[in-house]
Task: structure prediction
Amino acid sequence: PTTIYLKDYTPFGFTVDDVHLTFDLSPNATRVTSRITFSPNPDAADHTFFLHGEELKLIRASIDGQPVLPNVTDKGLTCDVPNAPFVWEAEVEVDPAGNTALEGLYMSNGMYCTQCEAEGFRKITYYPDRPDVMSTFTVRINGTEKVMLSNGNPTDQGDGFAEWHDPWPKPAYLFALVAGDLINHPDRFTTKSGKDVELNIWVRPGDEGKCAFGMEALKKSMTWDEDVYGREYDLDVFNIVAVDDFNMGAMENKGLNIFNSSCVLASPETSTDDNFERIEAIIAHEYFHNWTGNRITCRDWFQLCLKEGLTVFRDAQFTADMRSEPVKRIRDVIDLRGRQFPEDNGPLSHPVRPESFVEINNFYTATVYEKGAELIGMLKTLVGDEAYAKALDLYFDRHDGDAATIEDWLQVFADATGRDLSQFKRWYSQAGTPRVAVSEDYSEGIYTLTLKQSTPATPGQDTKQPQVIPVAVGLLGPNGDEVAETRILELTEAEQSFTFDGLAAKPTPSILRGFSAPVILEHDTSSAQRAFLLSHDTDPFNRWDAGRSLARETLLTMITDGAAPSGAYLDGVQAVLRDDTLDPAYRALMLGLPGQSELAAALHDGGTTPDPQAIWSATETLRQAQAQHMQDLLPRLHGEAQVSAPYLPDADQSGRRALGSAALSLITRLDGGALAAAEYAKADNMTLQLSALGCLIRAGKGEAELQAFYDQWKDDRLVIDKWFGLQVSLADPEHTATVAQTLTQHADFNWKNPNRFRAVFGALAMNHAGFHHASGTAYELLAEWLIQLDPVNPQTTARMCSAFQTWRRYDEGCQTLIGAQLDRIAATPQLSRDVTEMITRIRG
Ligand code: DPP
Ligand code: ZN
Result:
């Protein structure tokens, strides 16, 4: 396979002035006719006329009306062309019904749809399928489907056809087409400047009752982007379509967003509070791409973080504004530590802006998205809110209509603020999670904080340069009062000291407030100090994190020394949970424990080989201790969930349910499931129903409820995904692989549907002790199914390979077992480029 490098970028030899596409739809033989005006690109040195094209049957081609015979390979075609503007026409045939990879034009439940990011358009027609080639598109769809949609505005429609025109030049990855028997949930929105926009969410018949929440989220997103970023919508219509078979969450195609149905359809009976919050965030994310991604796109795929990091950052701001800022921040950091840190500290580690790839689909990662968003947050912290706003205005002004780079992005900040960002740029090129070691000194009223940064070697990067790390620090006095307000320390050297004076006594530092940088803090501090921060810190994030680090510390000593659960932790958390003035959602987060994979990483970092079984047992023991310790408090916490008002998936109600559910899971450890069974029986929304069912499964009960749940929901595919996932993720480690294996035999296990495949195998990989069971059966089961899925859907298969990325942490036995499965996958004939790259990188 060919490796593509950032340093090799050259512009395409031609510009595209306009694109006309005609689709004659037919399930196995859709004809696509393209008419494209090309002109020689004066900025390009190479004028080879190469058009990408894969899995296409070329019927005919012509230039300026004269038939031509291009040179066709399995990657595309070349052709001799005039040294002046010319009109290229081609007719190709594609097979949407046979397209199981869900890339290009394919069918899902009898409906036509497309996915072109990153490189799917080349499976629709011959084209320069690269993001820096932008053009207006005019599309005609001929077919018998009731609804036929494409990008932009509708221009004409009649019996058997529909025409669309998108006036905004766009790269081909933003092209979309949908045709099928769909029903719309319509609404309208008036922009700030008075433009009337028609909004639609299109779904399969039967799903029309699950669109209202998504529509509200869309309107809120539109208002928010006007208010906060000054960005208005720019077409007459905005369409969203829900599709069942989809490799990712959703796609921001211009004016025609296509969503995995799990990321848009919602109802209180079938969706949990977490589903609602996620749907709201994803709708916002895709909508925000209209400016950060579509109006300003990426020059090449190495710049993916330019649109994704920024758009994730924007959707996080939106969620914080709609709900609770500290709760959103804590949840994002849990996610970052749970998904991005393992990636950044293992064989798949790569910079936020990668410098090479074999298959770009393998780089839609937590590093590009979530660490990419952290970089935007740090930039904002470093320059301040006002300068950030000014820089963003300049970015939109200067680059509207461009295919831009990270250099362009940073230049805007440099110009708007006068700041030199050359050191900041290292965040984009250096992979790995920086460690920041803290030491303290106090004498004669002066407190000195010494910070030392280092980043471990990552694949291809043996040594690292110091990065600029904004460390937000506040100081607390002995009685818990804040004696120094939050100050941003800019750590730019390998080691640097910062002083605070005028202090009457040695303070307790609260470091990395709000998680001001995506680093691992190494601070050798006593549990008394952590407990002190847990009860006094004014920064809600650090207060939570103090509890988290106490939990981590006690779990680690339980695992390594067989110690008993720490009283300081149990008392400290109990005190926070008793405080009714605190947001229930926040208190629910306080009850959480570090993930078992995170504990494995911490052990490995400290030089101990993690034993997944021991980690699981310690976690169970600590949970049991929590339950006993808080026995008297739990009924009151559980009572928080009893909301008498009609169900609303808002921050207030969902926080109360989260706390109630966390309490129920502890109560189940004491009463054997009596309360959970009662709660299950009376639950009238999916959040409470699923949490009660989860408690029962964890307690080794709930067989009857599982069956009842299935019977109740067997016709709702999104709920049945939950049914599959829950059984695997909560299975006892001794039986996890068997449970997963049995479920793959279930009549409803439609493995070609990515949501269903992920429900089982995503959950298998997440069940840490079950996945890493010493028998190796889970590894074997996953490998077997990855091998089966690869020829059908390489993209989803490759994504799931990352389950093996942490394999070098574990003992030799595990490594041998996983190594054998990696070898087995690698030896599979005709393995896809996607999976080949993943396995090669994971094996190292
Ligand atoms: N660009 C999509 C998103 O992140 C994924 N393909 O919104
Ligand atoms: Zn995105």
